[in-house]
Amino acid sequence: MLRACEALKAQGRAVGPTNVRLELGRGSFNTIVRHLRALGYGRPAPRKDS
Asked: How far apart are the first and last CA of the chain?
């Protein structure tokens, strides 16, 4: 997963679930999203203003 993200960055492509899946050639979209978040490539959590 990390290698796919690095390869996308080196190619100047966006690091997102669709591009990562294309780079890997397979994988569950939800699993890829979870791993991207764990690696810090996910969307930031929404702020709760209270």
From this structure: 36
